[in-house]
Amino acid sequence: MRDPLSKKITQIEPSGIRKFFDIVSEMKDAISLGVGEPDFDTPWHIREEGIYSLERGRTFYTSNAGLKELKREIALYLDRRFHLQYDYEYEIIMTVGGSEAIDAAFRAMLDAGDEVLLPQPCFVSYEPCVVLADGVPVRIELKEENQFKLTKQQILDAVTEKTKLLLLSYPNNPTGAVMSKEDLEEIAEVVIENDLYVISDEIYSELTYCGNHVSIASLPGMKERTIVINGFSKSYAMTGWRLGYACGPRRMMEQIFKIHQFAIMCAPTTSQYAAIEAVRNGDEDVHKMRMAYNQRRNFIMKAFREMGLQCFEPFGAFYVFPSIKEFGMTSEEFANRLLQEEKVAVVPGTAFGACGEGYLRISYAYSIDDLKVALGRLQDFIERLRREQ
Amino acid sequence: MEKQILDAISKNSRFSTEDLAAMLAVDEETIRKKIQEMEEDNVICGYPTLINWDETDCEKVTALIEVKVTPQRDMGFNKVAERIYRFDEVESVYLMSGGFDLTVIIEGKSMKEVARFVSEKLSTLESVNSTATYFVLKKYKEHGLIMTKDKNEQERMLITP
Prior knowledge:
By secondary structure, chain A is α/β, with parallel strands linked by helices. Chain A has 2 domains: about 5-40 and about 285-380, Alpha-Beta Complex (Aspartate Aminotransferase, domain 1), CATH 3.90.1150.10; about 45-280, 3-Layer(aba) Sandwich (Aspartate Aminotransferase, domain 2). Chain A has helices spanning about 5-10, 15-25, 45-55, 70-80, 95-110, 125-130, 150-160, 180-195, 250-265, 270-280, 285-305, 330-340, 370-389, and strands spanning about 30, 90-95, 115-120, 135-140, 165-170, 195-200, 225-230, 245, 320, 345, 345-350, 360-365. In chain A, strand 3, helix 6 and strand 4 (about 135-140) form a beta-alpha-beta unit. Chain A is globular. Chain A starts with 6 loop residues before the first helix and ends with a helix. In chain A, about 50% of the residues are buried. Chain B is of the alpha+beta class. Chain B has a 4-stranded antiparallel β-sheet. In chain B, strands 5-6 form a two-stranded antiparallel ribbon. Chain B is extended, with a radius of gyration of 21 Å. Chain B has 2 domains: about 1-40; about 55-140, Alpha-Beta Plaits (2-Layer Sandwich), CATH 3.30.70. In chain B, strand 5 and strand 6 (about 145) form a beta hairpin. The relative contact order of chain B is 0.14. Chain B has 5 helices and 6 strands, in the order H-H-H-E-H-E-E-H-E-E-E. Classes of the chains: A alpha/beta, B alpha+beta. The interface of A and B includes residues 303 and 372 of A.
């Protein structure tokens, strides 16, 4: 019998997070600091709008690119928040979460053999999506001494004639790193010099704790080279609604549109109606959640300082990325022992790329009370390790 | 920072100064001082606990009373409001706009006790012209907190990318 499977897909490793998820799921009463989604419920006025749309029988498809009213609101929002100007009719497409937008953007822009610069550690989907689009991922190792920012030199070192795309993802999952306008200006300069394009995943753009997020697409000459990906999951605590969007120059969006049209049809209708309410009247909710995350971030950073755990201070998303190099074990060993001995689940840094070795991703999308208990256990664990050494 | 402290303790007054200091990235002394100032300025008036008495064996009845009063010369509504809020049974008193003047929320052990309070204490006050009493049948939410038991267990997955 012939092998029914494609070599392309069988050669892709399953997500490292998945493996760890299975172990954690077996453990009863484990406390997790491992989630990559908000702990808040979607604000009620947004949920209520979703319920209302169902009551009104709005259970049909929307047009492929999404509800016009929603896209218009998003265009206004992007301008208001990040000084990004997009024509809502031709330059914004509503997608099934940011994830679909990532996949479609790679597929729309890559030919076989095109190289994609992939700064790591990063979100788990990028590399497989590049491979599925026949692109060649070229990893760039982000460094703690650079606060996990991408530098101009790192691009120059990695770029070849085949390099076509740069994937940017700030505020970053898993490191929590952000890049300022000045940082991005340097990147934009090399991108333009080398005639590259950028896919900029800005899903955490509302969660920054020292100044407003800057989109690379807002820099001169960059809009025409950038696909911006954003969505409702993190900013409005709407992960389960699966609603994101991609924006970019019309010529690129036309091709993304085709992929979306044939593969997906349209983003969930209920979610789109709820999202109109979110983007219109949700600023205060976003502000409140941002404040809460920032308090937790402060809380966790102080706890790390007190236990002497080395960690660069992140200013975005809801993750911290402490170094565990002093303990002389791999991230996976550390995470496994922490889970077995103290029943605290964290994600080994290696789940986000090999260069995440020596780090852990710890999420602070938890209440202060939960964090307190988990951090207490982490401290006990660390002290025990230090005594062992 | 005052606003952030107040937002935090309005939801959970059991945050310690240590917790608050860590959350707001300042030292404990600063928090202690700010809280003391706000207590002295009557910004923070107390630290009561939100109790769902329905879940206990204690009998409690809550009533909301609309009161129409005659304001007094020079004193306006304050004097008569004080005459009312001094009673221990009275939980809250608000001066209202609209068709009546004061909302009085009272708590008693039984409907009888509440009725006695209204008829013997409240209505007999000279400035009180009329009262309308409404008994609370069930409390769903108070102080921004939902009182009904949330049976939902934690459904969020333990690990996600």
